[in-house]
Amino acid sequence: MMRHWWLAVLRCFSCSGPRTSRPVRLSCVLCIQSGPGSTAKRPRRTSRFRSMISSSLRMAGSIRATTRRIWLCPVSVKRLRKRRKGPAVFLPERLISARALTGVTQTALAETAGVAQSMVSMVEKHQRDFTEQLAVAFSSALALPLEYFTVTPRSIPRDSLHYRKQSGARVSDTARVHELFSEAFRVTESLLDGSGYPRQQLLAVQDDAELLDVARIDELAQQTREILGIAADAPISNVTRALERAGVAVATMNGHDDGFVKHSGVSWSAGRGEAALIGVMQVRGDRDRFTLAHELGHLVLHSFRRSSDPEREANLFAGAFLIPAPQVREHVAHDATLVDLRRVKATWGLSIQAILMRAQAVEQIDAARSQTLWKQLSARGWRKNEPVEVGAESPRLLFRLLQERYGPSPYSAPEIENEMALPVMMLRSLAPSPSTRKPSSSTPRPVAQLPWAGHG
């Protein structure tokens, strides 16, 4: 007797099941009959449905493999075509970006989708049609909505993005960060369109100099503070909120592997008065604040000009933006100790190392004293684990825009995956739900709390 493989169709991949007129609980992938104990209606035996079931059988190396969500109900196909005002057009370029986003090779994708590797290659090279059947197989294998292959995001050249990353970051990891940021920017533009939220009006620096000096960068950082409505001599209590109020969206881009850890931030702007996005890989409060200020420096200094050393300029801008030169001279003495720098960190929200570099940049600490302090940092193990914890910041703008469109619980809306063309888990990662905890007092508090504060 021929053994039957049972395919558990948990839901229609496009419409989440309840909206389809032909729900299927269990169906035999060989004879397409209702499974044992199933009360579902028998699916319509069309050639398209048979071909999808056949591809699922090729994909089934085990019963576990057969539980993939590969069925697309006729209602979903009809709705997709209606939105596209005609037959759905699946873009081969999106298949390439999907593989880069998920870090999947052509061979691995072909094996999971039940097709030959040469088929994947030919589709990407426009040598074979990107059919609906292939799109369904690929969307299931990559765990992406079918609409992912139909949307056309803004083209962001890889060399135009501004990265803050470690020297050991691999090219493939940077490609993944680029694809994730491109999708985040597409979602940001979609949410901002028609929302009425103000767009960023940052400085458009067009200096001819290949490398700006410290004085010029300090001047531009102070002008940026003024544009963002930040007092010239006060600490910035929340850098994320200051950026979002000015129309610069912030997305969290934390990955689940070491490749994303080696990247700290990435940013891009479509132009003055257009959407701007900063992606940050959150590590700890002080580092995240510096990364945000660093990427803001790229948006201000390098959107309309080229620099011979953009990373140095962005670092100088970040220090000047977070703690202006007059305040460095006021709070950091020429003979400052590490204990003094800890207090400055608690007030201004920079790492001790960033404060030390900032003091060097404005010549408040000479080379000899700086060298001594760096040695003390290393001896105490503070290079990797500094004292004084700076509170983590969480973005809110993107989540609020999702709420405006999909209601108070946007990630429960059945249509969000299809309209945003990204899985809910990826959207949650980019725009997490902000904490609902409210501060107990309206009294201004320092960015961080010293460990010995309040103890005698």
Overview in brief:
Helix content is 44%, strand content 6%.
Q: Could you please describe the fold and organization of this structure?
A:
By secondary structure, the chain is mainly alpha-helical. Among the domains are: 77 residues, no CATH class; 65 residues, Orthogonal Bundle (434 Repressor (Amino-terminal Domain)), CATH 1.10.260; 163 residues, no CATH class. Helices cover 44% and strands 6% of the residues. It contains 19 helices and six strands. It starts with 5 loop residues before the first strand and ends in a 26-residue tail after the last helix.
- State Rg: 26 Å
Low-confidence stretches: 1-72, 436-445, 449-456
Structural class designation = mainly alpha
Sheet bearing the most strands, described? Answer: 4 strands, mixed
Beta-strand percentage? 5-15%
Number of strands: 6
Organism: Leucobacter muris
Pfam families: HTH_3 (PF01381), Peptidase_M78 (PF06114)
Protein name: ImmA/IrrE family metallo-endopeptidase
Domain HTH cro/C1-type: 95-149
List the helices and strands and how they pair.
Layout: E1 6-8, E2 26-28, H1 47-59, H2 74-83, H3 92-102, H4 106-113, H5 117-124, H6 132-142, E3 162-165, H7 171-192, H8 214-227, H9 239-245, E4 248-252, H10 258-261, E5 263-269, E6 276-280, H11 285-302, H12 310-322, H13 325-331, H14 338-348, H15 352-361, H16 367-379, H17 397-406, H18 416-420, H19 424-430
Parallel strand pairs: 4-6
Antiparallel strand pairs: 1-2, 3-5, 5-6
Helix pairs in contact: 3-7, 4-5, 4-6, 8-12, 11-12
